[in-house]
Design a protein that fits this description.
The structure holds two protein chains of two kinds. By secondary structure, chain A is mainly α. Helix content of chain A is about 80%, strand content about 0%. Chain A is flat, with a radius of gyration of 23 Å. Chain B has 25 helices and 20 strands. Classes of the chains: A mainly alpha, B alpha/beta. At the A-B interface, helix 2, helix 8, helix 9, helix 10 and helix 11 of A face helix 3, helix 4, helix 16 and helix 17 of B.
Chain lengths: ~270, ~625
């Protein structure tokens, strides 16, 4: 019981928020963060699409190995890795169990392993990019690659208001707890407590939305007075915003290195 | 002038031309029947520092939205009249054009910050306008606001005051001629508010910016502004120099705006004197007569002082004797101590033993907010927690409410260790009222908000309790309204009713007077009296020293996470060194009574006036034999 209780307390909202913010903005010291976001985004695009069309186990395993290296380089927090592993095991393990029910045997594990590898490559590539680069760089990279400014701005703004939303959400949740009633008996493995919290999460959503809607009125007005829509319609503003992006030697090295490694992989496979 | 002096080459030739000219503007928001502006006419000269005052819903903010063209371009309602800003016609210009000349800092300034770091935020506007020197502009703006050391920090790491300064820097980066700041004091503690005003004063004096603030704290207006413009029902009633404006006591009173406390004191004193005059006692009359003639020789009888310094001179002259003597007088003054100490046999309700609290920050460092606090709070105490921002007031309340658990030491409420029981259980005994009432609203009507807890926890006679609460907090009319859409004062009453409904043993209020206008604030203080019928022990974390001196029986001063002082209001406010160290901001009345050497300090203007009146009478009626002391 104590174990379950500890587990609950580890997953406090504060901790999730801290981990998310660390993943997003704590990457200033990661070696990948010095790369040009445009190059890295194209690199990511490749690893997000190509694995789906590759069938060779060797190539996939090689790619996965490469992704593990880049993920380590991006200094991701253990929390994100834990979520990823839970996701992968849950997804694929579930499929494997179902396949056993419908007349599959241990041989059905192999195709599932392939699927796992594909999923891992794609997810690890995403983690590399989103953890190795802070949202500002991603947003600049997207803008440079021709994505509309309104979209790339919402990406960086989304991260910016994350702590605000968390704060708001915590307060609403707290209101429910301060004025609500927890189950008197915890039940087996604290299931009653679990259900109680899940219900609160759902209830809290509605007040959170209303509060956010009220806030955004000022934000939208302030954007107007600070020339945001002027910037949208004037290409020179965009050019100025992106003038700090530069392709450098290490960008070229990183991209050619990746390309060389992939060629080698495909040649072996 | 045909020959411009060589030393003033940049002297603008349109010095006397108004910077802002609004001529009979009327505006109705779409979907509304009532016009918000109703023939408003206003002229603002370049280089002025103007306060716009008016009651709630008088159209102050709407008026300011004319200046950067948000009205009529962004809000498309019924618009009539003419607006000219810095020579441009607002109707023919876009919001983007006007915004380069007019910077705007919102009342809820936090929602105005859209970038992750301080420097990014300051660069945002010039980048949008494609100005190549955006970095230099941002650096300059941060420098002006004193934020340069924080340039690489994330916005969510800043304090409220720093965020406000950043919103200001964000507006300044476009180097506008006009700066509009909407109610800077309402969301900030007094110390930070003063910091913001000091920056505004520098911008005004050194950089010649035209500053317009929407404000109803008369003390700040008196200290910083030059002109005051009064709005009532969408119309500009008058626009006067600050001294004259704050002496229009009738107008201010009618609109629920409190004049500066020293002005109130002077007015109250004069009322007392004229009452005494008509009362008829011979030597009293003489006394007041001589005083009056004194006064009229020295200054216009109808103008009262508005700042503490002025008031000090004004009253000192009136008392016209060595000030130390009045100090002696005061010691004989039979003012009873206000605080009634709790009886010795009262039981301890809250007990903290070496309680400490540490937060983790994004940079994975530990940040201690409370360092070993030990306190015992007994039943029936009215406690005010004071201290500057970051001193740990809110954290202490959260520890007592069980929202945060101590990282070291213990906190117990009614003998229960907060670590061993759940928040739901503890909240039966402890009610916590958030700083922002909106955070407490989880239902869609006032009635349901109050009923929520009573029903969930199946209290006896819930129906009757709800009705009683609605009546006690004057919410009967609003029972079906959504609490989020009420005014600030109404929201505050709902939050207090929610807290009081379960008749908890302890009630914790975080900044209950923050962002209330003064009329609502007065109302809150009387609501607190009402609260005592339902809850015995109340703790308030506050910056509002007037509330402290009028309400609390015990004042606990926190400084850097430790208790710096603990005693009655009179004891705490008498310690000048402590006040300095803990960053407390005294009210004008307290400062004035300190300046006039009256001890203990008076807490409200009427009391001070009465006291000065007594001194004056005593002085005049002293037998001549006693006079030599005074000469």
């Amino acid at each position: 019981m104590e174990l379950v209780r500890n587990w609950f307390s580890k997953f406090s909202l504060d901790r999730i928020q801290l981990e998310l913010m660390n993943t997003a903005y704590g990457s200033g010291h990661a070696s990948l963060s010095r790369l040009d976001p445009r190059g890295l985004l194209i690199w990511y695009l490749f690893f997000a699409i190509v694995p789906w069309f590759v069938n060779s186990l060797t190539v996939l395993a090689g790619m996965c190995l490469f992704m593990i290296v880049t993920t380590i380089l991006s200094r991701v927090t253990p929390f994100i890795i834990l979520v990823l592993c839970l996701g992968l095991i849950g997804q694929v393990g579930w499929l494997f169990i179902i396949s056993l029910f419908f007349g599959g045997d241990i041989s059905s594990a192999l195709p599932l392993l392939k699927l796992t590898l594909k999923l891992s490559v794609v997810s690890l590539a995403s983690i590399t990019v989103f953890s190795g680069l802070d949202p500002e760089k991603i947003s600049d990279g997207l803008l440079a690659l021709g994505i509309p400014a309104a979209f790339s701005f919402s990406l960086s703004y989304g991260y910016r208001i994350l702590p605000v939303l968390f704060e708001e959400f915590r307060n609403v949740l707290l209101s429910y707890r301060l004025r609500g009633k927890a189950p008197s008996r915890p039940g087996l493995l604290h299931w009653r407590i679990g259900v109680y919290y899940l219900k609160l999460l759902v209830y809290a959503f509605f007040p959170l939305m209303l509060a956010t809607a009220k806030r955004s009125r000022t934000t939208v007005e302030a954007l107007e007075t600070r020339g945001f829509s002027y910037g949208l319609n004037h290409p020179e503003a965009k050019k100025l915003k992106l003038s700090h992006l530069r392709f450098q030697m290490h960008d070229i090295l990183f991209l050619t290195g990746s390309a060389a490694y992939l060629t080698l992989l495909f040649w072996i496979g | 002038m045909p020959n411009m002096p060589a030393s003033l080459p940049q002297e603008p030739d349109n010095q006397d031309q108004p910077l802002i000219q609004i001529s009979s503007v009327s505006f109705t928001y779409p979907g509304s029947e009532q016009p918000v502006l109703n023939g408003a006419t206003l002229t603002v000269k370049p280089g002025s520092f103007t306060a716009i005052i008016g009651g709630n819903g008088s159209g102050k903010s709407t008026l300011c939205k004319l200046f950067n063209g948000l009205i009529p371009h962004y809000y498309s309602g019924d618009f009539e009249g003419e607006v000219r800003i810095a020579g441009l016609s607002a109707q023919d210009s876009t919001v983007a054009e006007l915004s380069r000349k007019v910077g705007y800092v919102y009342q809820d300034f936090e929602n105005q910050l859209v970038r992750p770091t301080v420097l990014d935020e300051a660069c945002f506007a010039p980048l949008n306008y494609g100005l190549p020197d955006y970095r230099a502009r941002a650096t300059r703006a941060l420098e002006l606001c004193g934020l340069t050391p924080l340039a690489t920090r994330f916005i969510w790491e800043l304090s409220g005051g720093q965020k406000h300064l950043l919103a200001l820097a964000g507006a300044l980066s476009l180097e506008p001629d006009i700066l509009i700041v909407d109610e800077p004091v309402s969301q900030l503690d007094p110390q930070h508010a003063r910091q913001v005003y000091e920056v505004l004063r520098r911008l005004h004096r050194i950089y010649g910016k035209t500053i317009i603030v929407i404000e109803h704290h008369a003390e700040f207006i008196a200290d910083y502004c030059h002109d005051v413009c009064l709005i009532e029902q969408g119309r500009v009633v008058w626009q006067l120099p600050v001294h004259e404006a704050l002496n229009r006591l009738d107008d201010l009173h009618r609109l629920g705006i409190q004049p500066p406390e020293v002005t109130q004191t002077a007015a109250a004193l004069e009322a007392l004197q004229s009452a005494a005059l008509h009362g008829g006692e011979q030597n009293q009359q003489e006394a007041v007569d001589s005083l009056r003639s004194d006064q009229s020789n020295q200054q216009d009888a109808t103008t009262y002082p508005i700042t503490t310094e002025e008031a000090q001179r004004y009253f000192a002259r009136m008392l016209s004797a060595p000030i130390e003597l009045f100090g002696q007088h005061k010691q004989q003054d039979p003012t009873p101590p206000r605080a009634s100490l709790p009886a010795a046999e009262s039981r301890t309700v809250i007990s903290l033993k070496q309680a400490a609290l540490t937060y983790k920050t994004i940079r994975k460092t530990d940040h201690p907010v409370l360092r070993g606090v030990s306190l015992d709070i007994t039943e029936g105490e009215r406690i005010a927690l004071v201290g500057n921002n970051g001193a740990g007031k809110s954290s202490l309340l959260r520890l007592i409410a069980g929202i945060a658990k101590p990282t070291a030491g213990t906190v117990s409420v009614l003998g229960q260790d907060t670590r061993s029981i759940s928040l739901e259980q503890l909240s039966r005994d402890v009610a916590f009222v958030f700083q922002n009432p909106e955070d407490m609203f989880i239902e869609d009507s006032v009635y349901k908000e109050i009923a929520h807890c009573l029903n969930k926890r199946s209290y006896e006679g819930a129906e009757a309790t709800i009705e009683r609460m609605l009546r006690a907090f004057r919410l009967e009319e609003l029972r079906e309204r959504d609490a989020r859409l009420l005014s600030g004062g109404q929201q505050r009453r709902v939050s207090l009713a929610i807290g009081a409904a379960t008749t908890p043993a302890v009630m914790l209020l975080d900044e209950p007077t923050a962002n209330l206008d003064l009329a609502t604030r007065e109302e809150l203080i009387s609501t607190l009296q009402e609260l005592e019928q339902h809850v015995h022990t109340v703790l308030i974390a506050t910056h509002d020293m007037q509330l402290v001196s009028r309400w609390a029986t015990r004042v606990i001063v926190l400084h850097e996470g430790s208790v710096a002082a603990d005693g009655t209001a009179a004891e705490v406010f008498a310690d000048t060194a402590l006040i300095q160290r803990a960053g407390l901001a005294l009210t004008q009345t307290m400062e004035l009574s300190a300046g006039l050497n009256l001890r203990p300090h008076c807490s409200d203007p009427a009391e001070l006036a009465a006291r000065i009146h007594r001194i004056l009478l005593a002085k005049e009626s002293l037998p001549h034999g006693a006079r030599p002391q005074l000469v």
